[in-house]
Amino acid sequence: VVPFFKEKRKTGKLPVTDPRMTRFWIELKDGASFVGKCVGMMRGGEIFVPKIASMSIKDLAKAVGPECEIEHVGIRPGEKLHELLIARDDARFTLEFDDYFIIRPSIHLWDESENFDFEGQRGKTVAEDFEYASNTNSDWLGVEQLKAVVS
After folding, report:
1. Whose CA is closest to 95, among 84, 83, 106, 103?
2. In this predicted structure, what is the pLDDT of residue 121?
């Protein structure tokens, strides 16, 4: 989206599908680092989900082209308003750590009394109605923070 907005700002208008739209934000270097860390911890079958910030697509547009008019163009077929990294259906398999979540496999490959003790941390069970979505996240990047990372 960032390269697209940078190209479009030349026109003076930035197309935003829906002003309510949110996404999770992770920089490539942070994603690569997280993958490297997880490879060393994995036992097999689990899914590692980083705790990362959310942002509004409208705020991203303002950060990339503050002088531009924002044009609402509507959601495209198949596009979602918000990202969902952990669905409620997976909550019963999810453990929370300081910086990430682990979704255990539904086929039990380990002793269930074991709560994935990693890096000196013990995973905590999340609530049964837990979900990790970009619109309900507690960590947000605002326009100024986005300006700093996209420049």
Report:
1. 103
2. 78
